[in-house]
Amino acid sequence: MAAAPNILITVENIHKRFPLPDGKGEFTVLSDVSFTVRSGEVVALLGRSGSGKSTLLRIMAGLIPPSQGQVFSNGKPLRGANHDVAMVFQSFALLPWLTVQENVELGLEARGVQRDERRQRALKAIDIVGLDGFESAYPKELSGGMKQRVGFARAFVLEPQVLFMDEPFSALDVLTSENLRGEIDDLWNAKAFPSKSILIVTHNIEEAVFLADRIVILGSNPGRIRGEVVIDLPRPHDRTTPRFASLVDYIYTVMTNPEIEVTGKVATTTPVLAVPSPYAKALPHVRVGGISGLLELIVDQPEGTDDIPRLAERLQLAVDDLLPILDAAVLLGFAEISQGDVRLTKVGQDFATTTILRSKDLFRQQALTHVPVLNSIVQTLREKRSGSMRADFFLDLWDEHFPHEEAERQFATAVDWGRYAELFEYDASEERLYLPEANPNLEKPVSLGRGEDN
Ligand SMILES: Nc1ncnc2c1ncn2[C@@H]1O[C@H](COP(=O)(O)OP(=O)(O)OP(=O)(O)O)[C@@H](O)[C@H]1O
């Protein structure tokens, strides 16, 4: 097939079926999927969990064959691994016994590149991702954000035509993922990117609208293309514009209504769905004990203000490890960050210095006003006469927005915070959440395995 000059990858009528676990028959994961990736564009594949996004990416990367249909890469039918692409994985997928440099060189070695050239190219890729000086570090010495930087360097070094990213930011805490996403976008906008196009798989709508020029929306059961939305914003895509909000709202609406036809015609005014789900906003994975410990350290500083790098140094922590705790303190309205300093708010100072009972009251007040998901859980429990709901009900809501493992972590963090604030209780043996007054069997909290030392 002769490809149009700017088409890098064509997916033509792809079907994918997997055998059923009982061996009797097959189920269809992808049905009649066709689309292209062109030079110079960022395409997002957006779909709910289970819509076959990763399967499609793996087929396009040549890691698994389609049951039917064909992929063309650079105009040639794909057979085996696709050397025109490189992949960044959600799980980083670094080899722990190799250094940063060795991890980055690995793909070049597999492609038979000579030692000196490997070294030069790896150093350049490590430099691009801002890890200069960490060449001899091992993965275990790196924070999550730094590990994913190595993941990017390992893909960049191959100078692929198309960079594939499979949920690259979703295993990182909120602030780290925000930073890295911003840096990747800057690199692309500066036309300094080591590939001609990007294909990103995500179920995060805002991420897709922020990064992509075009969003291909997948439906589920079986996975199929529902339509696409062109992101007609100047780069970088400014989240604060009404047009950004309209695009996000339009996509929320089609994602939550499987029956709606995706026309891609997005009205500029009146967002269709003004309030995003409270379950879509990630909680930083920090225990209440961690937040109060940090606030106690900061409150002792002059004017309740501390310099973040200096604080990290005093605590012998990487700044990346400190950030989720600061993130939580800011989310709860206990602290404010500006120009590298963290300053406690009035309520943050009270929280850090008061008695345990009063601190619970303050935490409850801040959680209910600043953390919509905790408020939503309490409201849901209040709707029930029994004051109790199965944990699965809430997990399903998080599953809409996060991979399942992350949904479970979000649940565990919400339980930790909700318990401390005495907003609700979790009975692990029953797998149920209760309003504090609602469970006669729960004399004392049942541990989630996260400790009770708040
Ligand atoms: N090798 C396999 N054998 C059998 N079933 C599979 C295999 N790989 C994926 N599936 C199934 O195909 C479906 C789609 O999976 P896939 O991981 O592609 O979805 P996804 O949209 O990427 O989901 P998520 O966002 O949760 O990662 C799921 O039901 C999954 O269980």
TrEMBL record:
SMART domains: AAA
Entry superkingdom: Bacteria
Keywords: ATP-binding, Nucleotide-binding, Transport
GO cellular component, one term: plasma membrane
Entries under Pfam families matching the protein: AAA_assoc_C, ABC_tran
Membrane topology: Peripheral membrane protein
Localization in the cell: Cell inner membrane
Primary subcellular site in the record, as a coarse category: membrane
PANTHER family membership: ALIPHATIC SULFONATES IMPORT ATP-BINDING PROTEIN SSUB, TAURINE IMPORT ATP-BINDING PROTEIN-RELATED
Name under which the protein is recorded: Nitrate/sulfonate/bicarbonate ABC transporter ATP-binding protein
Organism this protein belongs to: Thermocoleostomius sinensis A174
